[in-house]
């Protein structure tokens, strides 16, 4: 079955939920915003290859993670995961701030997490980094190490 790679901006509470319950919650009544390669993104970047489109979606998730940071020392965190296509809600309600924003209507199990991406330092230590390349990469098995950044 094909899957959709999604990028989820998350915070410490989401990481705790993933560790404790084994999934990131989302339901049709409580949708979760994610970023993915969408038809709108493809139309906005004619000629871009799959890797470029994936990086664009990831970059939008990084910006969203920065916008959700509560304080200057907060770190941006993005989870890359593989979602079933039927978890992705088409049309509204979809965030309008991005051509690659989607909403998920089903929980994302930990087994579907591909990787974690996190700032090495908080924003106050490095300034307002916008570059998605500034995030460290962690394997899906390293959830405890990622959570350790918030200890």
What does this structure look like?
- With 151 residues, the chain is an alpha+beta fold.
- The chain has one domain: Protein of unknown function DUF952 (ADP-ribosylation fold).
- The chain contains five helices and nine strands.
- The protein has helices spanning 12-21, 39-44, 50-68, 123-126, 143-148; strands at residues 4-10, 23-24, 32-35, 77-83, 88-89, 101-104, 108-109, 113-119, 135-139.
- Strands 1-4-8-9 form a four-stranded antiparallel sheet.
- It starts with a strand and ends with a helix.
- The model is unreliable at 124-128 (pLDDT under 50).
How would you summarize this macromolecular structure in one to three sentences?
By secondary structure, the chain is of the alpha+beta class. It is built from 5 helices and 9 strands, in the order βαββααβββββαβα.
Rounded average pLDDT: 87
The order of strands across the largest sheet is 1-4-8-9
Number of helices: 5
Largest beta-sheet details: 4 strands, antiparallel
Distance between the termini: 38 Å
Q: Give Rg in angstroms.
A: 15 Å
> Can you tell me the number of structural domains?
1
Q: Outline, from the CA principal axes?
A: globular
State which percent range the strand residues make up. 25-35%
Oligomer kind: single chain
Structural class label: alpha+beta
Q: What is the total tally of β strands? A: 9
CATH architecture: Alpha-Beta Barrel
CATH superfamily: Protein of unknown function DUF952
Q: What order do the SSEs take from the amino end to the carboxyl end, as H and E?
A: EHEEHHEEEEEHEH
